[in-house]
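Changelog note: in this version the structure field was regenerated for every chain. One regenerated record is shown below for reference.
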Amino acid sequence: MAHKVNAHLDTTEYAAGESCWSIVLAGSETIELVTFWRSSQLDILAKHEISAVAAAMLPEHFTPRGCADGANAAMTEIELGDRTYVVLGEID
């Protein structure tokens, strides 16, 4: 699947950057890229950036992930300081 996704990203001339983040939705027939712009109000909190304080705010049975299977994929939001963060993961 990773090869298929990377080939799709190549054809769309996707370029990662600091000003946005994207979620790849990959199905058996289609691949969709959904891009979100980072701001002072909304950002993403990557799995490796989650502190003990942030982890305590996550819902029960939610595990942060960099990549999640569609059947268990989930996202949640937490408030840290003056910013809302989206956290991607799975429901166990």
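Spot check on this record: The chain has a mean pLDDT of 89. The longest helix spans residues 2-11.
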